[in-house]
Amino acid sequence: MKIKTIAIFFYCILHSQNLVYANKPHIIVIMADDMGHYDVGFQGSNQIPTPNLDALAYNGIILNRFYTQNSCTPSRTAFLTGNYPIRSGMQGYPLKAGENRALPHDMPTMPEQMKKLGYKTHLVGKWHLGAATRNNTPTGRGFDSHFGYWHGLIGYFNYLSFRREHNHTLTRGLDLHDNLKPVWSGQGKYATNLFTERALEIIDNHNVEVPLFLILSHLAPHAGKDGLELEVPNATLTNLKYSYINDPRRRRYADMVNLMDESTGRIVQKLNQKNMLQNSIVLFFSDNGGQPVGLYQNSASNWPLRGTKFVDFEGGVRTAAAIFSPLFKKRGYVNTQFFHLTDWLPTFYSAAGGNLKDLGMIDGIDQWKVLTENLTSSRTEILINIDEVKNSSTIIGNNGRHKLIQGTFGHDYFDKYFGSSDHQTPGTPPYNHENVLKSVTNQAITSVVDGTMTREKIDELRSQTDLSWCRDFNKTFDFKCTDGCLFDLIDDPCETTNILEKEVEIREELKRKLEKYRLVLVPQRNKDFDLSSDPIFYNNTWCTWLDDDWCFKTTNIERIY
């Protein structure tokens, strides 16, 4: 009798705990890599069909003033810590394979914080925040599981990550891991599909009474093999499907984005099948702007914005983003409030019922009520970047109106206007409303909330995100910001007119704010390639080489070429 009483007691505790957890929303983040601002339908483009992402956006909230950092590692740092990268020395050039650098352990990550609220935490896909030791990989920084790659990019089929040496030779190794175990069996399978299948498996096996925190961090549409190729499952079909696009690389890019869109549909559909969608938050965004030119170019389009990945112009840091949840009191609108990557940690923590004091002093701002009730944000400024090595800095102030840029990247090559629009692709088919309305995402969403999406509503929302008015596509404005530029982002989001000399008071105020941030800047901690990390020592795989005893070592092995 006593044993039975104890069993009932513990059952009640566990059951009551599950009931508490069940009230917390499941949080699913889908992240694109190097996707252009213009390359989804909900931003006004007809070139690339993205019916699932569009349905997510139209039924939820389009974040029309969403800002990131200008490249991979800094963006993921800001997202996962709620802090500007300058607080941890993770600003500047993205982390390279074989570099002993990582997020500092005295700065808690989003999965570590969400676990305190009872969440099961999973990452599928890209990490890019350190892998020299086991405790710097995802499972050492709060994720219960990780299936994916540790470094900046891999091939879509071979999963090889590389380090480019000064003599232009490549040091290659397998970078596909299931937690810490290398997965050679993944080779030959297309990355977008492989990562999607693992994400679906996680959702399928998840106990719905426990809150889920899942990040699906895609490789797509980043350049793939050796940072050069845009890889698709069937190039012949791709060329037929996108024959109206003249540039063959842009065709492949379009298919990479479209396949990521199909992945999103499968994720949302699975959440619905598991009866999780009605208590979920689904966020989509790109980690930074597209890279139509330069290193790892992928033919993305940031039209009509200025700049690319690696620079602080709008094309590098203002990215396509949308969020859906049945928990929102207001849905189906374009939010023009000021958002930054750092805001997601406090926003998700707040949505889950956490006490924001637990997070300490961070740069992120809780935007939960701003989203769900369409309120005015309390965010008044964003430190876009300070790169003390490149001697450049950017800040947006005055409630998102004015932007001060000081300095350039890459001798101002990336500061120009790149990327095509529908106007420059005459054969582009008209926007397909029916594909959006019939998409698996729209069907799943309308099964849990009242469906109000119509062709007229879609056109209304698309018109609100349209920025084509801000510059003539036949005209560019190629001036340098070496000595500084000031832009009015409300009247001039395409950054065509430098008002630095005109608005002296605003310029000086933003300069003072930048100087305050410089006082707390932690210098960049970039390091040279550690020769002991070479995959040739570890069966041609990238391993946590500073935990050498845990790595499988080989001798007399031929290098992968």
Task: Provide the fold topology.
Blueprint: H1 2-22, E1 26-32, H2 51-59, E2 61-63, E3 66-67, H3 72-81, H4 110-115, E4 120-126, E5 145-149, E6 160-164, E7 170-174, E8 177-178, E9 181-182, H5 191-204, E10 212-217, H6 235-241, H7 248-273, E11 280-286, H8 314-317, E12 321-324, E13 333-335, E14 339-340, H9 344-351, H10 368-373, E15 382-387, E16 392-397, E17 402-406, H11 433-437, H12 440-446, H13 455-465, E18 485-488, H14 504-518
Parallel strand pairs: 1-10, 1-11, 2-13, 3-14, 4-5, 4-10
Antiparallel strand pairs: 2-12, 5-8, 6-7, 8-9, 11-12, 15-16, 16-17, 17-18
Helix pairs in contact: 2-12, 5-7, 6-7, 7-12
Give structural notes.
This protein is an alpha/beta fold. It has a domain at 26-307 and 321-328 and 335-379: Alkaline Phosphatase, subunit A (3-Layer(aba) Sandwich). 27% of the residues lie in helices and 14% in strands. The protein has 14 helices and 18 strands. The protein has helices at 2-22, 51-59, 72-81, 110-115, 191-204, 235-241, 248-273, 314-317, 344-351, 368-373, 433-437, 440-446, 455-465, 504-518, and strands spanning 26-32, 61-63, 66-67, 120-126, 145-149, 160-164, 170-174, 177-178, 181-182, 212-217, 280-286, 321-324, 333-335, 339-340, 382-387, 392-397, 402-406, 485-488. The strands form four sheets. A ten-stranded mixed beta sheet has the order 9-8-5-4-10-1-11-12-2-13. A four-stranded antiparallel beta sheet has the order 15-16-17-18, covered by helices on one side. A two-stranded parallel ribbon has the order 3-14. α6 crosses α7 and α7 runs parallel beside α12. The radius of gyration is 23 Å and the shape is globular. The termini are far apart.
